Amino acid sequence: VTEPVAQSRASKSSSRSGTAPKRRPQPGKKLKVGLIGFGTVGRSVAKLLTRDTHGRLVLTHICNRNIESKRVAGLPAHIKWTDSADELLSSDVDILVELIGGLEPAGEWIRRALRAGKSVVTANKLLISECGPELVKLARKMGQRIEFGASVGGGIPAIIGIQEGLAGDRLYKISGILNGTCNYILTKMEANGTSFAVALKEAQELGYAEADPTSDVEGFDSRAKLVILTQAGLRMQVRSDQIACRPISSIEAVDFVYARELNCTIRQISSAQRDNGDGTRLVAAVQPALIPLASLIAHVQGSENLVTATGEFAGRMVFSGFGAGGDPTAVAVVSDLHSIARSAGPPAAVLRAIAEIPASVGGEFTVPHYVRFVVNDRPGIIAELATVLSRYGISINAVLQKPGFPQSSLSFVMTLEPCDSSVLNRGLEEIARLDFHVRKPLCLPMFLE
Ligand SMILES: NC(=O)c1ccc[n+]([C@@H]2O[C@H](COP(=O)([O-])OP(=O)(O)OC[C@H]3O[C@@H](n4cnc5c(N)ncnc54)[C@H](OP(=O)(O)O)[C@@H]3O)[C@@H](O)[C@H]2O)c1
Q1: Is the peptide bond before 358 cis (omega within 30 degrees of 0)?
Q2: How confident is residue 10, by pLDDT bands cut at 50, 70 and 90?
Q3: What is the pTM for the complete model shown?
Q4: Is 160 in contact with 335 (CB distance < 8 Å)?
Q5: Average pLDDT over residues 326-330
Q6: Which sequence positions are flagged as catalytic?
Q7: Contact status, residue 158 vs residue 229, Cβ threshold 8 Å
Q8: Which residue's C-alpha comes closest to atom 21 of ligand 1?
Q9: What is the DSSP string of 72-116?
Q10: How far apart are CA 270 and CA 284, in angstroms?
């Protein structure tokens, strides 16, 4: 690298005045990039950055604990390898790339970088879902940028597409498949007719699922991404603990059989929408749901992800591709770096409207529902169910029963006309007290549009 690296004039004056330095990319000058976290994504980011020797970005620092064990051959000799975050943060790098993950010390290092007049790129969904608004505010105060395109959907340009490409629209709904592990498990159950436990074991053996799959299976990983998408797309601040999560482990092989009868399949769907009234209420949830077999989302296979953004003017836009992996995720990180490098003027990201706090947050969608019962069969069961449902104003659409189940463990399905899921849940609590159940009824929303 022979070109001079951008020197911030502001940083010299600010050190005299004692205020935070304001680094602004100067057109045509190289920008120094410091990387913290040389793991799966960090290694790919270093590879991509050092291949492009004619661009504006130059990787100058790589930081990781036990750095000697992390060193790899083939990267330019000028790169400084260090296990001291302090050394990197007090250096003259213009942009910090944070790829260690977790809340701390990642959060503290990002705050220090922003206060020191550096912009930040991170893939850290946990941190951004917890502290995104605070960090964006700090970046705005310091005249810097914080970009987190890799935190949702790996290499899919969903955040940048929504924030930049759809900035002219008013989005009212974001939904999609945000967790490749759940998608892998559900597509295997669908294709092979296997149980959840068998599909999970296979996913673990092939490295698609962690030894402890809780965060994926319970929906917590998707929920963190939905929080970020809600903020980026709907401009609404929501906390993870406000979004309902339901696990995919309650899905059984027979549910795919019944779903197919309904021309549907089952996926873990993350969905957030402004409500139909004044738009100040947010309805959001992560849950398994029935979706039409003919829909784009049903064709998302294995570990792929898909995000749809629906706006008042442009209608529905779809972003899909590999939602994880070192190289795809590194593309999103490096694209964010290029975006920062391109902006020589005031930082675009931090000038975006700060997200508003919704008047209320709920998890109830007014849609048709699928309810699967496993019962010890006897006459009158359907009539008893219909009596309770009608008390809650809920109409039955259809009853499906496949032949071949033993009478003592008979599985059948009811589909219900559109109803508010919170009203239905109250009805199902009453239904669960009836004496014929072998297992608790399973209720899934049907997202047919
Ligand atoms: N992998 C993906 O497909 C993917 C996709 C989207 C987003 N992300 C996000 O990208 C980030 C990085 O993920 P990854 O898969 O690259 O993780 P990873 O492979 O575990 O890499 C993390 C690296 O950071 C280092 N590290 C952790 N804590 C540290 C500390 N306190 N001080 C110094 N170094 C530390 C680790 O060192 P040790 O080796 O010593 O532990 C490791 O080299 C996470 O926020 C993740 O959520 C990952």
Answers
A1: no
A2: very low
A3: 0.91
A4: yes
A5: 94
A6: 225
A7: yes
A8: 39
A9: -TTS-TTPEEES-HHHHHTS--SEEEE-S-SSTTHHHHHHHHHHT
A10: 8
